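Example 9 (inverse folding). The structure is encoded as follows.
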């Protein structure tokens, strides 16, 4: 471990208090943008990468990393070469200098963290090209990417801090004690938690995207050719779909987990052809499809796991009931369906934990590296900034939205949907990737379409 020169104050000293206001204003202006721009990625040299990595390492103990420390951490010979690299990185906003600082130094930006993560995925050969943005969440961005073999995947970039900056007045007291470094750390925790739980769920047969790789605040996962439930206006068998979703909530509970944000935003509906050889094992939706002569089966796929909690959590009953009630409200509002069966209830779900030889995935996740301390830190942050899942869905056209619905999320999602729809010739699904930015300097960009359905999708009894 490299020692810190005493003349350069750390983040815990009075220096941070002296420049906090100016630093916070600059950070707000930068982090609100938080857009992935890969244009400069192919032009970075090996020395640039080592310098950027040095800034990242120095950020663990410094809000503003002193320039001499960057030179030391980069391990490059000759200070002039490092200063040239610093200048190159600052020009493309991968690092930034804070005005009125008492010493010469730089801080790592979200753009710099994005590049470091992409660089690692490239070396792992999980990402070769980056395509169109296909989703915008409250605290994440979603992109289509491709491997060197041309296989398309999804890149999810966690952006914890975006909601914090948008609601800076409401969170002023909390944000006074936070920094961009801590937001980046929380984004890392969110990515680690989501990847860990997604991996455990995938290994145990849950319908989730296949996790492929995780680094820093990013996750690479399977690209699921499906529609978000919130975009679907009609289904042939609401009762069957409702039953399957409730069974998914109960099955998660048997494995010791509660999703915490189980709603129409985080459920994808995938169309699959029924397998006649497995007709006897079909779900209720499969049976309905075969009886009605349907050519497809509707399969719900669960996504988004940063807010997932153990069934032993203090507020587990509240999270469980919220998940159940959210689905009930959505089906009543969208499909005009109300189940006659009461529940499911948390007390019954709690009794089923570990039955039928099921594992405790909450315990396995902790053993795999995502500790209770990490979970507590992430939970406190997400609760303070309102990113722990609101459990609310989208209001119907002309109707009132549920109380507490996040209008900014709806607006962002609408804008993304409209933009993608305009590029996608009426909103038809496409299996081609997005306009790719190649990592290889010798390759040119390719023009390709995006994958996103129209907002008002109707699944009927015929294709």
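The amino acid assigned to each position is listed next.
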């Amino acid at each position: 471990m490299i020692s810190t020169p005493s003349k350069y104050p750390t983040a815990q000293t009075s220096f941070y208090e002296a420049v906090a206001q100016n630093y916070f204003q600059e950070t707000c202006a930068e982090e609100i943008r938080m857009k992935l721009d890969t244009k400069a990625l192919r032009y970075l040299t090996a020395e640039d990468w080592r310098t950027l990595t040095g800034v990242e390492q120095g950020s663990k103990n410094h809000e503003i990393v002193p320039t001499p420390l960057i030179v030391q951490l980069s391990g490059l010979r000759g200070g002039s070469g490092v200063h040239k690299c610093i200048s190159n990185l600052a020009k493309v906003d991968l690092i930034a200098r804070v005005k009125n600082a008492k010493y010469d130094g730089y801080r790592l930006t979200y753009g710099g963290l994005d590049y470091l993560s992409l660089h690692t995925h490239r070396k792992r050969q999980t990402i070769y090209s980056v395509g169109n943005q296909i989703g915008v969440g409250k605290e994440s961005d979603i992109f289509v990417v491709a491997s060197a073999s041309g296989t398309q995947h999804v890149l999810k970039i966690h952006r914890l801090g975006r909601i914090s900056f948008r609601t800076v007045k409401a969170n002023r007291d909390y944000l006074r004690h936070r920094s961009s470094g801590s937001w980046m750390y929380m984004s890392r925790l969110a990515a680690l938690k989501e990847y860990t739980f997604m991996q455990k769920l995938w290994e145990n047969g849950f319908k989730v995207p296949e996790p492929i790789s995780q680094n820093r605040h990013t996750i690479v996962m399977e690209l699921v050719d499906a529609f978000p439930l919130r975009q679907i206006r009609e289904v042939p068998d609401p009762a069957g779909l409702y039953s399957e979703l409730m069974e998914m909530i109960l099955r998660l509970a048997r494995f010791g987990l509660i999703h915490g944000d189980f709603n129409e935003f985080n459920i994808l509906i995938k169309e699959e052809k029924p397998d006649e050889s497995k007709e006897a094992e079909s779900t209720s939706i499969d049976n309905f499809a075969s009886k009605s002569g349907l050519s497809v089966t509707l399969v719900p796929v669960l996504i988004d796991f940063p807010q997932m909690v153990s069934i032993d959590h203090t507020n587990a009953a509240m999270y469980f009931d919220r998940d159940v009630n959210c689905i009930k409200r959505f089906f009543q509002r969208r499909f005009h369906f109300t189940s006659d069966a009461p529940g499911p209830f948390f007390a019954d779900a709690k009794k089923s934990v570990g039955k039928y030889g099921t594992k405790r995935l909450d315990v396995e996740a902790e053993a795999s590296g995502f500790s209770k301390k990490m979970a507590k830190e992430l939970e406190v942050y997400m609760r303070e900034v309102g990113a722990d899942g609101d459990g609310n869905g989208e209001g119907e056209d002309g109707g009132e939205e549920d109380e507490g619905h996040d209008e900014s999320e709806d607006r962002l999602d609408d804008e993304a949907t409209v933009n993608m729809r305009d590029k996608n010739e009426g909103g038809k699904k496409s299996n081609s990737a997005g306009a790719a930015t190649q990592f290889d300097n010798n390759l040119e960009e390719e023009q390709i379409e995006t994958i996103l359905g129209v907002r008002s999708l109707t699944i009927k009894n015929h294709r």
